[in-house]
Amino acid sequence: MTANTSKCAALANLAAPGFVVEKAEIVPAGPAPAADGSGAVDGSGELLPEHCLVQGMLNPRIGAGGRKFGLGFDLRMPTNWNGRFAFHGGGGLDGRLAPALGDIFGSVRPSALARGFAVVSADGGHRGDWLDGSFGLDQQARIDYAYNALDKVTLKAKELVGQYYGAAPDYSYLLGCSNGGRQGLMASQRFPLHFDGIVAGDPSIKFSRIAVDQIWNTQVAARIAPKDENGRPIISRAFSDGDLRLVADSVLKRCDALDGLADGIIHDWRGCDFDPGVLTCKEEKTDGCLSEAQAGALRDLYGGPRTSDGKPLYGAFNYDTGIADPTWRTMHIGSSGTGEWDSADATLGLSNMRYYQRTPPDPKLDPMDFDFDRDVQRTRHTGAMSDADSTFLETFARHGKMIVYNGLSDQGMASSVLVDWYDEVVSVNGKSIRESVRLFLIPGMCHCSGGKATDRFDMLEAIMAWVEEGRAPDRIEAMSAAFPGISRPLCPHPLVARYKGGDVNKADSFMCTD
Ligand code: CA
């Protein structure tokens, strides 16, 4: 038995009431486990160093409906530690314990763990499917998912890191996208001393209003969809794939060259004034045009939910190429050939609204009965604890750095909502906040990755350089899976990349400017 083996196993002796240690053992160097926690090997070829794995649970208890709850965590501490700590952000409605790699769903390679970080992940306070909101029947589970698991697991993990290495981390980071991005914002707003550096990708910032938007989207699609034999709308047929491609092509035609180069990427997204009305059929509906009802529905989907007198309840989406990406269909209309809907809006979104966002929960809520004048106020109680849109960052800005990013083709998180938040952060905290918090909008990128975009970038390197060496991210070079061989700069909002001349494949040929 090596010294590390016994030192790792000894962490089990710290078990106490309210702190269960299920595992404390050395994992030899080898392939990374898959993110779903199934025990399979990750397909990316990611290799992990030898590390001490501690799995356990804080505050185990029996809650609503006799269900077991508790703050599950997975902590991995490499034998060759680089002195840094990272929290591995969650996703969806959490409920599963991902191996703590610190890799933002595979977008950070090598992962933080492979780079020598001690990394912890958390299950959000409940176990189940990440699409399933039923934990929201339990009061404490709502609090745990909103912010408490992030807080308590971080503090416990730092304590265990101190025990294992005999030293506190030099630097602490949070790396997340989607719900993990929301956790990043939440950490900067509610636990401003926990982390030195935060990467918050595609965050569900106004989470309660995203759920409202998802109900809205389902109603809009149902309005124009053909009916099945039982009279139920087949929302997947609201738009054909050809319709969606037609819109993407038309958006590109109007807006691609605004940034100086027609390269399939719309950098000047604010200059893009596309309206689907230009595609309305002159006569009957054919492949090359949209029906009037479809054009109207697109305006409603992109405009976001509103009250009957027109008051916006979430925010507007920008038109971009991602509408033709399969993830847009998966999110909003799905592929079911019947009135049994399978879109993420009608499954994850509805479960989120029924069980978690709504007070009191209403497991039988029919999305078609949701009233945008009357029912939105039922989301304000959960919204107050899990929406991460506070703008006063005085304490965090004293020591911390945060990179926030969002795909401009994110099918669920409207970039305009994040822009409005960031602009308010600047007005509340003053322009100097740009030396602590920056927002990057990534043209063409869908939720967290994908799309016709430069979606390959190393945000871990960027945040470390900013925190540890004071090198602020004035531009971040990004590569592309969709356009092999090209690179583009990602620019801090409000700047966008514009072509200045030279090799069209190279980021150097673009400048970040107004
Ligand atoms: Ca362009």
Task: Give your account of this protein's structure.
With 514 residues, this protein is an alpha/beta fold. It contains twelve helices and 15 strands. The strands form four sheets. It has a nine-stranded mixed beta sheet with strand order 1-4-5-7-6-8-9-10-11, with helices on both faces. A hairpin with a 5-residue loop joins strand 4 (51-62) and strand 5. Helix 2 (139-165) crosses helix 3 (179-190), helix 4 (207-224) runs antiparallel to helix 6 (292-303) and helix 4 crosses helix 8. The longest helix is centred in the first third of the chain and has 27 residues, at 139-165. The protein starts with a helix and ends with a strand. The mean pLDDT is 97. The chain binds calcium ion. Residues 256, 259, 261-263, 265-267 line the site of calcium ion (CA).
Which key phrases capture this entry?
nine-stranded mixed beta sheet, 29% helix, 514 residues, binds calcium ion, alpha/beta, single chain
Structural class: alpha/beta
The major β-sheet equals: 9 strands, mixed
- Strands, total number: 15
Give the DSSP E fraction (strand runs of 2 or more residues). Answer: 15-25%
How is the largest sheet built, in terms of strand order? 1-4-5-7-6-8-9-10-11
Bound molecules: calcium ion
Number of helices: 12
Uncertain segments of ≥5 residues (pLDDT<50)? none
**Into which percent range does the helicity of residues fall?**
25-40%
General shape: globular
Termini separation: 61 Å
Oligomer: single chain
Estimate the mean pLDDT confidence. 97
> Over all CA atoms, what is the radius of gyration?
23 Å
Helix-strand pattern: HEEEEEEEHEHEHHHHHHHEHEHEEEE
